[in-house]
Each structure stands twice: as C-alpha cells, then as structure tokens.
Design brief:
globular, alpha/beta, 8 helices
C-alpha cells in the first residue's frame, strides 16, 4: 500500500521532471534558432523533407521543425520520409511513426530500398576502399532514396538529424582516415540537383537530445542496426573520450576550428 510519504515523493519527483523539461526545452529551442540563424538554414517558402529513421535524433528534429513551421516567420512546410533497408535488419515501429507524424500534422512517406554487398557502387576512386562497408552502402542508398523522394515531392531542402557530436566525430574520422579537415556541414548546397541539405541540430549535444527523449517518452527502435558498434566511428568516439581527459573543452576547440575554416557551409 502506498503511504502519504510515498505519494509526496512521487509528486515531488514529477514536479522536478517538469521543471527539468521546461529548462531543457528552452535551451534546445535557443540552440536550434541560433543554428538556423547563423547558417541561414531555413527561409520563406522552403519545402523541407526530414529523414526520419525513428531514432531519438530524427524524432526530435521532426518535432522541432514541425512546431517551428507553425510560426509565421520563416514560412515553410515539412514532410517526413522513413526509409527501410531490405537487407539491414534494424526496425522502427511504422505504427508509432505514423502516430508521431499525425500528432504533428506532418505527412509521412515510407520507402523500401536495399543493396548487395560487393555491388558496383563506386563513383570515384576514393570510394573504392569504402565500397565493401555495409555502413557506407546503407548510408549511400538511404541518401539516394531521400534525394529521389525530395524531388518527387517538390522539396527544395532535406533535413538530417545529425547533432554536434556527429559533426565533431566526422571531423576526427576525416582527419584520421582521410587526411583532410572536413565534416558534415550544417548547410550543403548541391550543385547537381536543386536540393540543399541542412542539419538544424548542429549546435545541440547528443546528451541533451537523449535526456529530452527520456523525459517526453520517445519510443525506442524495435531492433538496432547490427553494425552500430562495429565501425570506425565507434573507435573515434573512444579517441574523443581520451582527448576530453586531456582537454575538457576539446569539443569547443574543434567546433571553433570548423567555423574559422568555413567548413560548416559548403557547395557540393
């Protein structure tokens, strides 16, 4: 039987969580607005397609963009695309995604694609070493589906849920394995097609998105990617942890360097 003391503790805990959520929402909103203002990510009459994987990052991205689209300035519209890979067995509940999008009044599209490991997917000499990587192939085919669907729907921008940690990890990966200082930019204008890729979560830390997802109760994916912890990105994540022990401000240092070298806005 629950005592009055137990009830008081639960109420106090609930109130604490509500206050934490309100504080976190303000922080996330400020960083989101700062990002799209700094890098000019969203403009009037944009038609944005969100890549909705079903993970916490893409769910938060869609929720944030959908809520922002209800404000008159800037004036833009949002749709979502969930891409399923026929040969990579990770899964998100389609029913949950449909309900999530319906609550936000955002149209949801679902597409299925796949690839054969070892297939001829090279488009330049630098792709040869990456050809056999399931992670590279999965990413490439998902991106191709996003491009095709965006153009079919008349979208001019594609929004991806990469946060600041993703961008910093990619910077270290490119330095370590490619010998170049580059990353996933916040704004990437495509030259070969009328599309621009934007990353509105570029100033937000993964830990804050994780906590927000816990507080609001995002559903987790049913099955995780089998290659999730078997990649160079995982190794670089560990490398960054070591660097943090040397300099706790290493994230800020890398981010400032990217800004100084104009690596966060690019044409491709």
């Amino acid at each position: 039987m629950m005592t009055d003391c137990d009830s008081a503790d639960i109420k106090k805990s609930d109130e604490s969580a509500i206050q934490e959520l309100k504080h976190l929402e303000r922080k996330l909103h400020q960083l989101f607005v700062r990002a799209f203002a700094t890098y000019h990510l969203i403009e009037d009459d944009d038609h944005i397609l969100v890549g909705l994987s079903g993970g916490k990052d893409s769910l938060f991205l869609l929720e944030t963009l959908a809520k922002r689209s209800r404000i008159s300035h800037p004036r833009f519209s949002v749709e979502a695309l969930h891409v399923r890979m026929s040969n990579i067995h990770y899964e998100t509940s389609t029913e949950y995604l449909e309900r999530f999008c319906r609550n936000l009044n955002v149209p949801l599209h679902v597409a299925v694609t796949g690839f054969e490991t070892g297939a001829d997917t090279c488009h330049s000499s630098r792709d040869v070493r990456r050809q056999k990587s399931p992670c590279f192939l999965c990413s490439w085919y998902r991106r191709k589906q996003l491009f095709n669907t965006a153009q079919q729907l008349g979208c001019n921008k594609i929004a991806l849920g990469h946060h600041q940690d993703d961008i910093i990890h990619t910077t270290l990966m490119n330095l370590t394995f490619q010998g170049r200082f580059s990353t996933m930019p916040a704004l990437l204008k495509m030259k070969k097609m009328p599309l621009t890729i934007i990353r509105p979560l570029c100033m937000i830390a993964e830990a804050d998105i994780q906590r927000y997802a816990e507080l609001v109760g995002y559903e987790k994916q049913l099955k995780q990617c089998p290659y999730e912890h078997d990649s160079k990105r995982t190794d670089v994540h560990q490398l960054l942890k070591v660097a943090e022990q040397i300099n706790p401000e290493v994230h800020s240092s890398i981010w400032n360097a990217l800004n100084a070298e104009n690596k966060l806005v690019e044409d491709y």
